[in-house]
Amino acid sequence: MSKKTTKPDKANNQVVATNRKARHNYSILDVYEAGVVLVGTEVKSLREGQASLVDAFATIDDGEIWLRNLHIAEYHHGTWTNHAPRRNRKLLLHRREIDNLVGKIRDGNLTLVPLSLYFTDGKVKVELALARGKEAHDKRQDLAKRDAQREITRELGRRNKGMR
User: Fold this and answer.
1) 43-81, pLDDT tens digit by residue?
2) What is the tally of structural domains in the chain?
3) 117 with 88, same domain?
4) What pTM did the predictor assign?
5) Is residue 71 within a helix (H) or strand (E), and if so which, with residue range?
6) Alpha carbon of residue 59 to chain centroid
7) Rounded to 5 degrees, what are φ and ψ at 161?
8) Among the four residues 12, 46, 85, 161, which has the most C-beta atoms within 10 Å?
9) Is the dihedral of CA 8, 50, 36, 19 positive or negative?
């Protein structure tokens, strides 16, 4: 099932991989949860935590969403049936969500970026973000805001402890 979420929130979720650079390089506008079509050795490799979302992105081709450049390492107990590590994988979303994404991507310079890959009730899901790329000055501004907020909380903690 695909629905808008902000974080995987159930207790039985096991996060396999996260894209830590995505929130730094992109402004997140919308977040979607999508299923991933996988083969058996990919699931076994994911259960061992062997995945990387660095450089991964999603595209819409002929009304279908495809996850590209997701690296899932080959299953070490696999035989000749092992999968290709960087093959394109189909994402599962409702038709109206796909049509909505097509319209938004066509309008502005937006992209689909995977934020995290996780298990929910035994099924592999990807948290997909509709995002706009940040300029260099936006990144510096965000870092400055984060540093200022960190200093404020640090100072408030000192005052509450009576150190100053």
Assistant:
1) 888 888 878 888 888 888 888 899 898 888 877 776 677
2) 2
3) yes
4) 0.72
5) strand 71-72
6) 14
7) -85, -10
8) 46
9) positive
